[in-house]
Amino acid sequence: MSRLIGAELFKIRKRAMTWILLYVLTGILVLIYSLLYAVSKISLPSVSPPGLGSIENLLGLPLAIPFALSILSSFGTVLAVVLMASFVGNEYNWGTIRIALICAESRWKFLGAKLISIIIAILIGMIIGVATGFVMSLITTAIGNYAFNFNFATGEYIWSQFLQFWRTFYIIMLYALLGFLFAVVGRSAMPGIAVSIGVLFLESIITTLMRLAGGWVAKIPNYLLTANVDAINALNQIPQGFAEGRGGGLIQLPPINQAYTVLTVYILVFVAIAFYLFRRRDVVK
Fold first, then answer.
1. How far is 33 from 29, CA to CA, in rounded Å?
2. For position 146, what pLDDT does the model report?
3. Domain map of the chain by residue range?
4. Model pTM score
């Protein structure tokens, strides 16, 4: 198994898409911080959107990690889905999966090694993303002549950001594994990317309409993805103006225990179905 994981990590490291996605992630973080710094130097109207807070606060060191994680939980999820679906589905597209399976001890180990290696790559990407956000915060603090005050870095703060990191990873993996499932179902990268990103952005619209319908239909969203993801996101110390989540901030969110239970069931179902289909079906038909 370790040999297979090493081989998959080697392929991930050598493929151009991995580096392109990483460059896009870091580039977006640099661009956002640069734009925020530029806007912070402009005299804005006294009336600003409610909850936005001070832009200087977003550039400051105390919010550097939470702000970076809030970007990762949205835009980073899209990149993780592309990475996951592509590295699973492209084996079908390129016709290399039969050759790869000949070298593997079993289908379970082959798919498991591919999944584990992509999860490791996503974790590394998250760490790089958080580090990029913190470095950009240091740069904007320096060029903006703001105070370098690290009194905020208490044990409680570090523990809070540690938990926020893993909650963000949990949310990212939910959608990445949905892409993983449909890449296996569709034997291609495109179904995985299309379905997962479609659910990520369109489910909130559908569930809003379901809530407006009332009755028992209005309760269905509490057992879908968006409402439970928003319940977990509500625990994170996301900067003001970014805390409403994809489903909006005006709805009653499910209890946090229910959110973790429902999403964990989804994750287990996604993985179980993917492995079952991969084991039972012919890889090219």
1. 6
2. 67
3. 2-280
4. 0.86
